[in-house]
Design goal:
With 558 residues, the protein is α+β, with helices and mostly antiparallel strands. It has helices spanning 6-57, 62-76, 92-99, 137-151, 158-164, 185-192, 238-278, 293-342, 346-377, 390-402, 425-442, 499-509, 543-549; strands spanning 80-84, 104-108, 113-120, 123-132, 173-177, 197-201, 210-216, 223-231, 386-389, 409-413, 420-423, 446-453, 458-465, 513-518, 525-532.
């Protein structure tokens, strides 16, 4: 069912596309957040890496350096290793960060442990290797100690040197008057006891929750060192959410465009074919590449084009044939009228009137045949199907034909009275009448008429004669309008060549077919028409519905 509907395929494709875009967005967020988290960790440690490097560089000898590192480890409550540089494998990007006196952070997502690598000033042969498992308030409150230890070497110039090292820090640092800070009495009391405090601020802005560290400056009762505010890591900031949403919509729109392009291409081909048809060019046919709605549209267009082209050709052929067929009786009428004008003999004039009357009757018959054929050929007959006892119609045609006293033998192999078929009585009678009349006209002596059911759900009627038959290479042409064969079936036999054309069109609109072969019993021609014995439950429908049941173009009818 899915492959037969282009719209279901589009809907299913949209669902799959949405799922894929959602997965793509999720993975993209994870990848971006991994990089953002790494940059966030490095930005928080870059400044401290510089301060620690400066602190170690100020120590005059190796022992004091080791003591300083030990004190720093105790203060941070983190293990700090003084290792040789050649023992640590650094990537090109990590080595560049070390040269720029920035920190290298290696994060282990499975154990949630960060390994921090810090380069040393004036000691390229060694590195500091810090293992940070848990970052608590203890470590955060220790950070101002390192900054103040750096500033103690510049008494009276603390603010100036704080500004010099600001670019190493991703968050602001400044010396503020404690009175300018929104602190309560408890927090001020803790500062007076030389304790650092941490301030948490929730904000509805893009920055979200921030942390600030306030630490008292030794020797000052009014000024404090404020580090921050430091924004906590936001896994889904507005910029990232907006970017991923826009990118997802763009990818989704590309996917939708990709789903609609094939249909757009097919519709463009249909539009091109219709424009060509509008100019009178019926040669364009659409490729039927699928069994969905577009394939059905292409198939319907091709069938319509074939039908219109056939109708146009049939109309042209009909006009040529009609003009030819009308000339003979009209010429005879004109000749008879001219003869009557110069003839005074009453009996001769009466004879001419009778001949003219026959020609007029022939014209009426020809017009009736042409109108019937045109009505069937246009493809819009109104067929009212009903249940018909097949024997009754066959017997009626036999009785009517015998009343004409043709001198030929008619044999009816009557089907049982229980054989009931769905058909339009008027047109079924016309088919049998035309076939029997055609057989009587060309047979030598005998015509056999039969009908019934073939065991496959089809009804049939069969008319055979003992005449000369029809050559196999002429059998397809016999159903063309005004067609006559050149041998035994000549113009002298009578008729206008429309009877079998009418039979073929009725068979088509019945949803069946008609074919010719050689009679195995009589040796002449055998005509067999087949059509579905049962239609719909209500046994009635319009010709337009009947056409859908059979698109059998093997009728060889133009």
């Amino acid at each position: 069912m899915l492959k037969h509907s282009i719209f279901l395929r589009i809907y299913a494709g949209l669902v799959i596309l949405v799922v894929l875009v959602a997965l793509f967005g999720y993975l993209l967020v994870q990848i971006i957040n991994y990089q953002r988290a790494q940059e966030y960790r490095e930005s928080l440690t870059d400044g401290m890496a510089y301060i620690i490097s400066e602190g170690i560089a100020r120590q005059p000898n190796e022992q004091q350096r080791m003591d300083w590192i030990s004190d720093a480890s105790n203060l941070l409550e983190l293990p700090i290793y003084y290792v040789k540089a050649d023992k640590v494998d650094l990537t090109r990007a990590e080595a560049k960060r070390i040269e720029e006196r920035k920190a290298v952070v290696r994060w282990d997502a499975q154990t949630n442990v960060a390994y921090i690598i810090i380069g040393l000033k004036d000691d390229a042969g060694h590195l500091l290797y810090i293992k940070a498992e848990n970052i608590t308030e203890r470590q955060m409150k220790a950070l101002p100690v390192f900054v103040l230890d750096y500033l103690v070497y510049y008494p009276g110039q603390e603010k100036e040197y704080l500004q010099r090292i600001q670019h190493y820090f991703a968050y602001p640092m400044q010396i503020e008057d404690v009175k300018n800070l929104p602190l309560d009495s408890e927090q001020i009391g803790r500062l007076r006891l030389d304790h650092s405090i941490i301030l948490y601020r929730d904000s509805a802005t893009v920055r979200g929750t921030t942390i600030s560290i306030v630490s008292p400056i030794p020797g000052s009762t009014t000024e404090v060192l404020v580090m921050g505010p430091v924004p906590l890591f936001n896994w889904m900031p507005f910029q990232l959410a907006a970017g991923i949403t826009l990118l997802s919509l763009f990818v989704l729109s590309l996917g939708v465009y990709g789903l609609l392009v094939p249909m757009q291409r097919k519709l463009r081909a249909v539009n091109y074919a219709l424009n060509k048809m509008k100019t009178g060019d019926m040669s364009v046919r659409l490729p039927v590449e699928s069994s969905d709605e577009m394939g059905s549209l292409a198939s319907s267009y091709n069938s319509m084009s074939d039908h219109i082209q056939r109708l146009i050709e049939a109309q042209r052929e009909l006009m040529r044939a009609v003009s030819h067929e009308l000339r003979t009786p009209v010429a005879r009428i004109r000749f008879g009228v001219e003869m009557m004008a110069d003839e005074e003999d009453y009996e001769y004039r009466q004879h001419q009137v009778e001949q003219i009357d026959k020609d007029i009757e022939a014209l009426n018959t020809l017009i009736d045949e042409i109108m019937t054929y045109a009505k069937l050929e246009q493809g819009t007959p109104s067929l009212d199907f009903e249940q018909i006892i097949l024997f009754e119609v066959l017997d009626q045609v036999v009785i009517e034909t015998e009343a004409l006293k043709t001198g030929k033998t008619l044999e009816l192999q009557a089907p049982p009275l229980t054989v009931v078929v769905d058909a339009e009585r008027r047109y079924l009678h016309r088919v049998i009448q035309n076939l029997v009349g055609n057989a009587v006209r060309y047979c030598d002596n005998k015509v056999v008429i039969s009908g019934g059911l073939d065991g496959k759900g089809n009804a049939y009627i069969c008319v055979e004669d003992d005449g000369p038959g029809i050559p196999e290479d002429e059998r397809s042409r016999i159903f063309e309008a005004f067609a006559r064969l050149d041998d035994s079936r000549t113009r002298a036999s009578g008729g206008y060549g429309l009877g079998l054309s009418i039979v073929s069109r009725i068979a088509y609109w019945f949803g069946g077919s008609v074919h010719i072969d050689e009679s195995p019993r009589l040796g002449g021609a055998r005509f067999i028409m087949q059509w579905p014995a049962k239609r719909f439950k209500d046994s009635k429908r319009k010709a337009g519905d009947a056409a859908k049941d059979s698109d059998n173009e093997s009728l060889n009818v133009k």
